[in-house]
């Protein structure tokens, strides 16, 4: 009697039977997709847990299909679809809340949870703790008493471009191809790619990163769409309608011969991108802010 009660077989507890009882009311697409993902993991001999399938459905809906948050099957529905497949593989279903979750905390204390690869991108602008030595291996001190900073500038052997290449080579060619600590069957790259649904991500628009990676200044647009910055004159055709108005300019301190102009933000609204302003009358292809200031100092 207890078993029949639990299975809702007793007439008193069964209620009114629906014509679609026992079927999934989420259309045909999602059950088929969930089964295909699970069966592919079996075929690849890299069995995904139900919790991993939930994350993949979440990622596929938001990233691939551009659905709104919540416009995809609930995890309980996903577990019901997977139950016979998991039973066939003689594996137990894990608790829906089980599994490891990556999370990051924002500056205002908000906790962000990442369900799949590249859902959250965090930029760390901490300065590298790089020690500078002379040709004999002696540490050069960044204090002004003994002129260490000047010596370091003259005797430094690596440029910022060199450091960038070294770090890129390390992460791309070495670190990302080492075994993933929590599952050594995969490399870090393979784990990341699987979390992306097996596809490389769309390349980000660099303008979306300006607010994170660049410095910001306010400038008045002069005649002919010109802007003055660090004794240089920059010009942009798209700035001509803004003569006499303030605009926001973002710039990369390592490459200051190009400024990125934006309409000034108002309230919570970010400014719209106007165009790129390039330095005129310069006989060099590139320059950092430090190099530009040194050049100005020498000219004075």
Could you characterize what this model shows?
The protein has ten helices and ten strands. α3 packs across α5 (about 75-90). About 35% of the residues lie in helices and about 15% in strands. The longest helix has 15 residues, at about 30-45. It has helices at about 1-5, 10-15, 30-45, 50-65, 75-90, 150-155, 160-175, 190-195, 210-215, 290-300, and strands at about 100-105, 110-115, 180, 185, 215-220, 225-230, 230-235, 245-250, 255-265, 275-280. A six-stranded antiparallel sheet has the order 5-8-9-10-7-6. A two-stranded antiparallel sheet has the order 1-2. It has a two-stranded antiparallel sheet with strand order 3-4. It is of the alpha+beta class.
Put simply, the count of helices is: 10
Note poorly predicted spans. Answer: 18-22, 91-99
Global structural class: alpha+beta
Q: State the helicity in percent bands.
A: 25-40%
End-to-end distance:
97 Å
- Percentage beta strand: 15-25%
Task: Give the ordered list of helices and strands.
Answer: HHHHHEEHHEEHHEEEEEEH
The largest pleated sheet is described as: 6 strands, antiparallel
Radius of gyration: 29 Å
Q: Looking at the structure, what is the overall shape?
A: elongated
Integer average pLDDT: 80
Secondary structure blueprint with pairings:
Elements: H1 2-6, H2 11-14, H3 29-43, H4 50-64, H5 75-88, E1 102-105, E2 111-114, H6 148-155, H7 160-173, E3 179-180, E4 183-187, H8 188-195, H9 210-213, E5 215-220, E6 226-229, E7 232-235, E8 246-252, E9 255-263, E10 273-279, H10 289-299
Please describe the structure with a list of short key phrases separated by commas or semicolons:
six-stranded antiparallel beta sheet, alpha+beta, two-stranded antiparallel ribbon, elongated, 10 strands
């Amino acid at each position: 009697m207890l078993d029949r009660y639990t299975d809702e077989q007793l007439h008193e507890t069964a209620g009114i039977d629906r014509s679609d009882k026992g079927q999934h009311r989420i259309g045909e697409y999602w059950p088929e997709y969930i089964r295909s993902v699970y069966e592919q993991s079996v075929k690849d001999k890299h069995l995904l847990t139900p919790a991993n399938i939930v994350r993949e459905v979440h990622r596929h809906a938001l990233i691939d299909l551009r659905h709104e948050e919540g416009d995809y099957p609930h995890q309980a529905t996903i577990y019901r679809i997977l139950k016979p497949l998991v039973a066939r593989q003689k594996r137990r279903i894990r608790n829906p809340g089980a599994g490891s979750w990556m999370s990051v905390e924002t500056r205002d204390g908000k906790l962000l949870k990442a369900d799949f690869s590249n859902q959250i991108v965090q930029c760390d602008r901490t300065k590298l703790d790089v020690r500078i030595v002379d040709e004999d291996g002696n540490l050069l001190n960044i204090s002004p008493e003994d002129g260490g900073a000047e010596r370091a500038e003259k005797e430094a052997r690596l440029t910022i471009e060199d450091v960038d290449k070294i770090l890129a080579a390390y992460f791309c060619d070495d670190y990302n191809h080492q075994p993933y600590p929590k599952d050594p069957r995969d490399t870090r790259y393979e784990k990341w790619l699987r979390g992306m649904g097996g596809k490389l991500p769309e390349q980000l628009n660099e303008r979306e990163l300006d607010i994170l990676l660049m410095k910001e200044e306010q400038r008045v647009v002069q005649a002919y769409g010109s802007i003055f910055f660090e004794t240089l004159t920059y010009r942009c055709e798209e700035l001509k309608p803004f003569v006499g108005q303030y605009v926001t300019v973002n710039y990369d301190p390592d490459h200051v011969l190009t400024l990125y102009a934006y309409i000034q933000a108002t309230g919570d609204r970010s400014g719209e991108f106007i165009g790129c302003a390039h330095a005129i009358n310069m006989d060099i292809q590139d320059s950092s802010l430090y190099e530009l200031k040194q050049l100005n100092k020498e000219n004075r």
